[in-house]
Design goal:
32% helix; (2Fe-2S)-binding protein; DNA polymerase, domain 1
């Protein structure tokens, strides 16, 4: 049964008529045309669908949309850059370190890194590896991703 649900996505409120059990990822991509989060495994295991929920990285592919209503701040990759287009420091560091190859894991890597740095502004390499562990990368850019997070953290 559909219901009117209000979501706070990238700083803007959206009221949509949805089935409350619809996965957040589907709403972001299909209803709001936000394509940063990707559908990967559909099992919350690859990280391609990562978003920030109140600054905590969380996979969105199985998360029912009704669980993120009521003021939860949802941030997607598109919501990181400044309104003038200036990249978020993590995004800029990933560009500078060329920390993307195929790009499929990029959303999860960036969103996980942003969450990590908000919790631990100066992480060591072990903390960075732990912060990115939920993101599956098949083309082996992990070393460059670690360097990008270090660059963004200034360590």
């Amino acid at each position: 049964m559909d219901a009117n649900l209000t979501l706070l996505v990238n700083g803007k409120q959206h009221t949509l008529r949805l089935d409350p059990a619809t996965p957040l990822l589907y709403v972001l991509r299909n209803d709001l045309a936000l394509n940063g989060p990707k559908f990967g495994c559909g099992l919350q295991q690859c990280g391609a669908c990562m978003v920030l929920l109140d600054d905590v990285a969380w996979p969105s592919c199985q998360l029912p949309v009704h669980q993120v209503t009521g003021g939860v701040a949802i941030t997607t990759l598109e919501g990181l850059a400044a309104p003038d287009g200036t990249l978020h420091p993590v995004q800029a560091a990933f560009v500078q370190e060329q920390a993307a190859q195929c790009g499929f894991c990029l959303n999860g890597m960036v969103m996980s890194a942003v969450s990590l740095l908000r919790q631990y502004p100066k992480p060591d390499e072990a903390a960075i590896r732990n912060g990115l562990f939920r993101v599956l990368c098949r083309c082996s850019v992990q070393a460059r991703a670690i360097k990008a997070v270090q660059r963004a953290a200034g360590v």
